Amino acid sequence: xxxxxxxxxxxVLLIALAIGGYFLYQQQAKTTLPTPSPTxxxxxxxxxxxxxxxxxxxxxxxxxxxTYTDTELGISFKYPDTWEVKTTIVAGPNTKYVYxxxxxxxxxxxxxxxxxxIDNPKNLSVKQFQEELNKKNMAVPLIFYSDNSSPVKVAxxxxxxxxxxxxxxxxxxxxxxxxxxxxxxIKLMETIHGKYVSEKGKIVSTxxxxx
Length: 211
Fold this sequence. Notes:
Layout: H1 3-32, E1 66-70, E2 75-79, E3 84-92, E4 95-101, E5 110-119, H2 126-135, E6 150-154, E7 157-162, E8 171-179, E9 182-190, H3 197-205, E10 208-209
Antiparallel strand pairs: 1-2, 2-10, 3-4, 4-5, 5-9, 6-7, 7-8, 8-9
């Protein structure tokens, strides 16, 4: 065979080898490249937001408190779960004293809740009722409302509050409210002057009429 006849054959063989090598490379690339895994997004847990809103009186803080219920007067209220009902005293047909002992205090510290009422046949408001009493010029007038009284709600009813009531020898706060033909007085007294002021408001915030 002449050299002229061999040259074309070599060219064809080289082209065939080049094509075969290209397809072999492509096949190996397909089998050796790793399959990409789906992208995973890691989310860091965000810290719980701090609740900075204040807890209203009578909710949250008083949830675990004990409940005192008096079926005769038809009232109930809560008191701190570490306190204990020491005794109850009936001071009259319409008056009851509930004495609470505070174990964590020395000298048998006492906190008393006194509840009483006076008939209000005209179903007057507290202020109107006081004005009627004042007209009678009583020697020792009953005080349910004065110029020093502050408006307040008791059991969801509009009433009044006297910060420094006359409950000697106790430090006393008096709440008054008109409900179902009666003027109700809730007196909160403590032997440790001023130490449990916040508890007074919380106890009154849980006060309810059950009748």
